[in-house]
Amino acid sequence: MAHFTNNLSVDQLHLLTLNVGYAQHNGDWNWKNVRSPFARLYYVTEGSAQINIGTEFYTLTPRHLYFVPAFTEHSYVCDSLFSHYYIHIYEDQQDGTGLLDEWTFPVEVEASETDLELVKRLCYINPFMRLPESDPTSYDNHPTLVSNIQLNQRRPFCDKVESRGILFILMSRFLKRATAKAEVKDDRIHQILAHIRRNINSQLRIETLAEMACMSKDHFIRIFKRETGETPNAYIAHRKQEKAELLLITTDLSIKAIATTLGYDDASYFNKLFKKHAGLTPQQYRAQKI
User: Fold this and answer.
1) Using alpha carbons only, what angle is made at residue 143 by residues 137 and 145, rounded to the nearest 5 degrees?
2) Strand partners of residue 65
3) 215-247 pLDDT tens trace
4) Residue 286 to residues 34, 221, 275: CA-CA distances in angstroms?
5) What's the pLDDT tens digit per position in 99-126?
6) Is 70 within 8 Å of 38 (Cβ atoms)?
7) Contact between residue 51 and residue 75 where contact means Cβ atoms under 8 Å apart
8) Packing angle, helices 232-250 and 217-228, rounded to 10
9) Which H helix or E strand runs over 40?
10) Are 206 and 223 in contact (CB under 8 A)?
11) d(CA 184, CA 193)
């Protein structure tokens, strides 16, 4: 099982607090098929509820931390009293890739004695980041996300430092038990995956990647699929799709500019690929989030 290693730098992790606050519910925390470009972290103080991810149901109980990664479709089930702190975390992918995307995190960890005070402190220094309501459609949309990201970046430097420090501490609870998503044994493929992540905004040709791995094209495709479960083209398309969704929701870039940013010379081809994976055109996807 591959765990975080010492060659990873904390400088690669850029976390922003989008929303933070305290919420009390009584059977009214029920939202279906939620999928966001940001991660969610919860600290439960009273009662219980459930989160459904895929075929798994996780019961949220007091004095525990819960983490839902970005782009993870999930649903909430609540039929009684339930009180919790919530933190929405956005990873600012400054080099074009997200470190959190590369790891599988546990959904639940036991909170330490100091975690509640840390969460309360994060709320105290960011009172304007409290959600006006809990319905995801009220905050998980293009205008609100763009506004929240810009608001975060305009905060006093001291608040940025303290907020990021608290996020690092809370996320460290999950990082201790995180594992690499793709347990790649072949060093050549491992290096190619790192190259793809670093250059996801570029045109990535299979022939070039095979040459970098010192393999023939056919051999490279076969080994890549054996190691990752996907063909190189499918893996690249998946990564570009998530990056496109992120840019559509969190920036005001035009569709053509996003296509160019991701290495597509033909915007119409980008539209076709996006619709193939999302079932919507980029314009429709963004409009759905407004």
Assistant:
1) 75
2) 43, 109
3) 999 999 999 999 999 999 999 998 899 889 888
4) 16, 34, 12
5) 787 788 999 999 999 999 999 999 999 9
6) yes
7) yes
8) 60
9) strand 39-47
10) no
11) 9
